[in-house]
Design goal:
By secondary structure, the protein is mostly helical. 60% of the residues lie in helices and 0% in strands.
Length: 86
């Protein structure tokens, strides 16, 4: 088991080279936010476009990052493209 776990930790185990699967499916609103991220819109612009508060957009972004297994906007957009979400 130790060797198998080491392979997953260092990227040479089963499934190496492919991004991890989604933890959960994105909601419709999260997909809308993600689409606007891909258009390089700021958090404030996304909030205005969707008629929600900036804090609501930030909450959606946190959820998107968690579900895609990323920590930044650019990584989220890249991962979404890899997974065919955009």
């Amino acid at each position: 088991l130790h060797g198998l776990a080491a392979g997953w930790l260092y990227g040479d185990g089963p499934g190496a080279g492919s991004p991890p699967l989604l933890v959960e499916e994105l909601s419709g609103r999260e997909r809308e936010v993600l689409g606007r991220l891909a258009q390089m819109m700021s958090t404030q612009e996304i909030a205005a476009d969707l008629y929600v508060s900036v804090n609501t957009v930030k909450t959606h972004l946190k959820s998107i990052y968690r579900k895609l297994g990323v920590g930044r906007r650019g990584d989220a957009v890249r991962r979404a493209h890899e997974r065919g979400l955009l």
